[in-house]
């Protein structure tokens, strides 16, 4: 049976991800950072974050090491509440309902940016007259 690669943590600052990677590797756990370089190029619009990934069989040991070094894990209920809070607005926009959460967020931010650009543009027209 082949072991799957799973995400154990996600960071939005490269240094934080690199510190955890170094910690786990120093304890003999093979892991790697996914999206490390794209996150640095896209910074500060780092939507997906830098993912620390390792073999599924190493997760229990890695979690023990992380806990011993002060890393906290959100409870499942907290994660569900956060996802529901972020995606709650999508129920009110029909074309977003069919999209995955990440795309809903991206489309929402684009819509907000366009709205703000229009407000600024029309505000400048009014103030210049």
From TrEMBL:
<dbReference type="InterPro" id="IPR018551">
    <property type="entry name" value="DUF2007"/>
</dbReference>
<dbReference type="Pfam" id="PF09413">
    <property type="entry name" value="DUF2007"/>
</dbReference>
<feature type="domain" description="DUF2007">
    <location>
        <begin position="6"/>
        <end position="68"/>
    </location>
</feature>
<dbReference type="InterPro" id="IPR011322">
    <property type="entry name" value="N-reg_PII-like_a/b"/>
</dbReference>
<keyword id="KW-1133">Transmembrane helix</keyword>
<protein>
    <submittedName>
        <fullName>DUF2007 domain-containing protein</fullName>
    </submittedName>
</protein>
<feature type="transmembrane region" description="Helical">
    <location>
        <begin position="105"/>
        <end position="126"/>
    </location>
</feature>
<keyword id="KW-0812">Transmembrane</keyword>
<keyword id="KW-0472">Membrane</keyword>
């Amino acid at each position: 049976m082949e072991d799957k690669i799973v995400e154990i943590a996600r960071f939005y600052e490269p240094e934080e991800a690199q510190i955890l990677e170094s910690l786990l590797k120093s304890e003999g756990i093979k892991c790697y950072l996914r999206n490390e370089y794209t996150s640095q190029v896209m910074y500060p619009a780092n939507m997906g974050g830098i993912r620390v990934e390792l073999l599924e069989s190493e997760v229990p040991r890695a979690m023990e090491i992380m806990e011993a070094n002060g890393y906290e894990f959100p409870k499942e209920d907290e994660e569900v509440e956060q996802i529901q809070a972020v995606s709650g607005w999508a129920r009110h926009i029909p074309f977003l309902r069919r999209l995955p959460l990440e795309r809903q967020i991206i489309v929402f931010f684009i819509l907000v940016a366009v709205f703000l650009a229009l407000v600024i543009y029309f505000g400048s027209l009014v103030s210049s007259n």
